[in-house]
Amino acid sequence: MATYPNTGLKPLEALRASTEKNVLVDVKGRRGYSGTLEGYDVYMNLVLRNANEIINGEVKGVHNRILVRGDNVIFVSPSSGD
């Protein structure tokens, strides 16, 4: 499994380090979510809490809890909310 440059972290280790922190998730279809990473699995299915749904750069909805299916995930990044 590949590691992230300059960190030595493997992808699932990076997700573990981001648990209970704010993240930005970009998914297929020009859509994204910003919220607290509550959990994940080996398929990169992600559970976000207090998630904003972002479509074309605009917040279109707020969800208490949302499941983002891993095969739609393009990237996961720390959010500036932390």
TrEMBL record:
<feature type="domain" description="Sm">
    <location>
        <begin position="10"/>
        <end position="82"/>
    </location>
</feature>
<dbReference type="GO" id="GO:1990904">
    <property type="term" value="C:ribonucleoprotein complex"/>
</dbReference>
<dbReference type="GO" id="GO:0000398">
    <property type="term" value="P:mRNA splicing, via spliceosome"/>
</dbReference>
<dbReference type="Pfam" id="PF01423">
    <property type="entry name" value="LSM"/>
</dbReference>
<dbReference type="InterPro" id="IPR001163">
    <property type="entry name" value="Sm_dom_euk/arc"/>
</dbReference>
<protein>
    <recommendedName>
        <fullName>Putative snRNP Sm-like protein</fullName>
    </recommendedName>
</protein>
<comment type="similarity">
    <text>Belongs to the snRNP Sm proteins family.</text>
</comment>
<dbReference type="InterPro" id="IPR022901">
    <property type="entry name" value="snRNP_Sm-like_arc"/>
</dbReference>
<dbReference type="InterPro" id="IPR047575">
    <property type="entry name" value="Sm"/>
</dbReference>
<dbReference type="GO" id="GO:0003723">
    <property type="term" value="F:RNA binding"/>
</dbReference>
<dbReference type="InterPro" id="IPR010920">
    <property type="entry name" value="LSM_dom_sf"/>
</dbReference>
<keyword id="KW-0687">Ribonucleoprotein</keyword>
<dbReference type="InterPro" id="IPR016487">
    <property type="entry name" value="Lsm6/sSmF"/>
</dbReference>
